[in-house]
Specification:
By secondary structure, this protein is an alpha+beta fold. The protein contains 5 helices and 9 strands; from the N terminus they run βαββββααβαβαββ. Helices cover 12% and strands 29% of the residues.
């Protein structure tokens, strides 16, 4: 799809409106990388989810790759939206207001593992994944209880043509962005074609 023209930063502090959205850090064969993720509801554990939804390519390299390692999720990362050069020195309450959550399990679609690549192809329709996480410092509360929010995954939603638009939230790191701030954009929804 064409790039979206209007992208804006989410109101700060992020935890007040978008506590379920965060940043994922991981090691890939090319070195350290980042993605965005969202806390999602767990039907097997209502109100106590430890699941994070993200893109399949954030967890597995697809047809020519393997599983990523050392995966950690930070909800409401850089809560006050500080410039990149100030984030690490801003203290844990800003960097990770809800702590850091290590992945204990990861799953993506068979279609992504068998056919995914960095070139557009039909496997992109299956470029989704889920993490099960646990708090870095232990504790009895789930991720959903800790952040106070989780999003439904809607597998049986209507066709994309029935939506006028969809908003996306995350920490884009490709230029002109640097991955330090939570951004949002809204665009029309349409079918993926190749």
């Amino acid at each position: 799809p064409p790039p979206v023209a209007k992208v804006s930063e989410v109101k700060r502090p992020y935890h007040q409106k978008m506590a379920a959205v965060g940043k994922i850090f991981f090691d890939s064969p090319e070195g350290p990388m980042v993605c965005s993720g969202t806390v999602v509801r767990d039907p097997a554990n209502p109100g106590k989810s430890n699941l994070v939804w993200t893109a399949g390519h954030c967890l597995h390299g697809g047809k020519e790759g393997g599983w990523m390692r050392n995966i950690i999720f930070v909800p409401s990362y850089n809560d006050n939206g500080l410039p990149a050069e100030q984030v690490e020195s801003s203290g844990p309450q800003n960097v990770a207001p809800y702590g850091r959550w290590w992945a204990t399990e990861a799953a993506t679609s068979k279609q992504w593992i068998e056919g995914g690549s960095d070139k557009g192809n039909p496997a992109f329709a299956y470029d989704f994944a889920v993490l099960r996480v646990k708090p870095e410092n232990g504790g009895n509360q789930s991720l959903e209880e800790t952040v106070g929010a989780a999003v439904d995954v809607w597998f049986n939603g209507p066709k994309s043509e029935q939506y006028r638009g969809m908003s996306v939230y995350g920490y884009p790191a490709d230029k002109p962005f640097d991955g330090s701030k939570m951004m949002t954009c809204t665009s029309r929804v349409g079918p993926m074609t190749y």
